Amino acid sequence: MANKQFNTAKFIKTFLVVFSILVAGVLLLGWFLNRHWNALLKKELPGYVAKISDSLYIVQFRDLRLDVLSGSVTVEKVHMLPDTLVFKRLKARNKAPQNVYNIEVEKLELRYFKLWKYFMGKKLSAGELVVTGPKLEYEQNLTTVDTSAPKTAYEQISNTIGSIYIGRLVLDSTAVKYVFVKKDSSRVIHQFDNLNVRINNLLIDSVALKDPTRFLYAKNYEIAMKDYAQRTKDSLYNILVKGIRYDAAERTFHVGHFQVQPRYARDQFQKVNGTQKDLFDVAFNNISIQDLNPMLLLQEQQIWASKLQIQSGKLNIYRDRSLPLPPGDKLGNSPQQLLEKVKIPIMIDTLVGNNVDIQYSEKNPETQHTGVIHFRNVHGVFTNLTNIDSLIAKNNHLVARLDAIFMQSGKLMAKFDFLMKDKTARFTVTGRLNSMNGKDLNVVTKPLGKVEIKSCNLQELDFSINGDERKASGYVKLLYQNLKISVLKQDKDHGEYKRKGLISFLANVMVIKDSNPLPGENVRTANVTHTRDIKKSFFNLVWKTLFDGVKDIVGAGGL
Questions:
Q1: Is 70 exposed, middle or buried (0-12, 13-18, 19+ CB in 10 A)?
Q2: What stretches of 227-287 show up as alpha helix (H) in DSSP?
Q3: Of 143, 156, 167, 386, most Cβ neighbours within 10 A?
């Protein structure tokens, strides 16, 4: 037993000695390789850059550290810049590239670096590359003539490195300046700060560019931008944009939240303007723009996309009618005319809005009360949203299909068809409203018309309106039962409403027709024409035309 114990102790002692020698050997080898390969990397890095770029670029760095045991490389204060003398020589021979870069990096960390693959097989493979504080200046100059044969990224590196694989490339707090020089020498400059870039599974080898699952050698590029805030030129609103992100694999631009926020409360807003002006409060959530062409946007300031989708939002509009009207008129401000006036060329095949609440509020100077019209859960689909002449020549119809809950209970469906590039801004509107309790309209009729709807079962409202920027005409059919109203007067001291008994009685008995159809009669319809008040909006024209038809049907057309 003692002999066995002795042998075990000797074995453990021997193992510890051998293990210590191995550890010392590994550390010594690591130290040697660190010194040897560290010096080699410091020497090779500038040479690689010069060889790959045909001596166009120079790379400088303050320090480079290789850790063999952890498989990491850290480079500090890196600067890659073009050699101006070389560029001039290349340009004189029509060999200078159109794309020129100037890159500065605070720190570059290559992690999980496979050293033997690199030093023995000249293949760069790493799990992650983290770039801290990068600044990129990128100039694309179309006036530069380059007659050299174009090369892929792999063709440029293949004589020096067999392949490059980075599992994850991270660039935080990135500043980018993009200068695009057009053929006429005009310049377009874009500046972006605080970008966060993620590139997944980057592979540059002989077959990666042809891989259909990759986009520019990578599985995906994700670019996120810091929240954006800007005041409008008239200083009336703040624009807020949050959650900005571009997904290159999906070719989709995402915005988490977009808001146009008034800087003044309602009363202050009116005082600042001095005349009637709509006050907007807008917020949209989870916006996605699909198949967006980023280079066309950056280079030509054109927006081309297949689909813009909004998941939810609100649009609140307020107007104080007690103020004087502004000078001028609102001709030329129909929806299609406003789109045509946008200076940036736009082509969006389809715009879809979901779960949007729209509210219009108007203050009546006579009652000093505010009436409210509310559309809830609006779903809208807009097609052929463009202001590009060549596309309008092929299809000049901007179509909007909408459905919503009107006020509290009405089920509304409507279709707008706008003719683009039409001198008179012609349009058609068709729609239907079903199953509504007429008393829901009291929040509008009392403050704006001093009329209260005591009862009304609105069964169906159908309408079809044709018009232009000056007038509209249409057909209206309204089916309803048990309409009773009260004509109101307002207490001057307290602003409360009181019923005018006699006038209300006469209105219900002699003027208002309480149902359509009346017993034994045909259904009443109305054909109406309305001339626009050119100081009021396009939607006021549509509303007034429809309201004229409704008044005719209920018997109040002469009021």
A1: exposed
A2: 266-273
A3: 386
What is the pTM assigned to this prediction? 0.80
CA distances from 286 to 253, 291, 310, 482 (A): 11, 16, 6, 44
Identify the residue whose tokens are 């027709």. 513
| Per-residue DSSP letter, 334 | S
Give me Rg for the CA atoms of the chain. Answer: 36
Tokens read off for 365: 């100077």
Q: Take residue 184 and report the two structure tokens written for it.
A: 């006429």
At 57 the three-state DSSP class reads strand
Name the residue ranges covered by the structural domains of the chain.
35-231, 236-523
Q: Which long-range contacts (CB under 8 A, 24 or more apart) does 21-26 make?
A: 26/69
Using alpha carbons, select from 289, 309, 311 the residue that is nearest to residue 351: 309
- pLDDT per residue, tens digit, the chain (559 aa), is 444 444 555 544 444 444 444 444 444 434 444 555 566 666 666 777 777 777 888 888 888 887 776 778 888 898 888 889 989 998 899 988 888 889 898 988 888 888 778 777 788 888 888 889 889 898 999 998 888 888 888 888 788 888 888 899 888 888 889 898 999 999 888 888 888 888 898 888 888 878 888 877 888 888 898 888 888 888 999 999 998 898 888 889 999 999 999 999 998 998 888 899 999 999 999 999 999 888 788 778 889 999 999 999 999 999 999 889 889 899 999 999 999 999 899 999 999 999 999 999 999 988 888 999 999 999 999 999 999 999 999 999 999 999 999 998 899 999 999 999 999 999 999 999 999 999 999 999 889 888 999 999 999 999 999 999 999 999 999 999 999 999 988 887 777 888 888 888 888 888 899 999 999 999 999 999 999 999 989 999 999 999 999 999 998 866 5
Residue 527 dihedral angles phi and psi, to the nearest 5°: -110, 120
Residue 431, token pair as written in the block: 């729609």
Q: Which two structure tokens, joined as six digits, stand for 306?
A: 């297949």
